[in-house]
Design a protein that fits this description.
With 78 residues, this protein is of the alpha+beta class. Helices cover 44% and strands 26% of the residues. The relative contact order is 0.23.
């Protein structure tokens, strides 16, 4: 069973995050990702950026599903 901390590590390796939290049941996970890199990106582009980081994990089946909320630091503080 996949540990949320492992997903956090994967995302942190490829994205500078001000805040990152992952919750899940071992197969389906939800992420709250706050990064300045999301400035100027729409929601789809932000998610594509994260999927780019974890693509190999999704393709291999190691990670089955990840829903995500992606925010800039300013959006998160509101």
């Amino acid at each position: 069973m996949l540990d949320p901390k492992q997903i956090e590590a994967w995302i942190n390796q490829g994205l500078s995050c001000e805040h990152l939290s992952i919750d899940g049941d071992g197969q389906h996970f939800a992420a709250l990702i706050v990064s300045a890199e999301f400035e100027g990106m729409n929601r789809v582009k932000r998610q594509q950026r994260v999927y780019q980081i974890i693509k190999d994990k999704l393709d291999s089946g190691e990670l089955h599903a990840l829903s995500m909320q992606t925010l800039t630091p300013g959006e998160w503080r509101k």
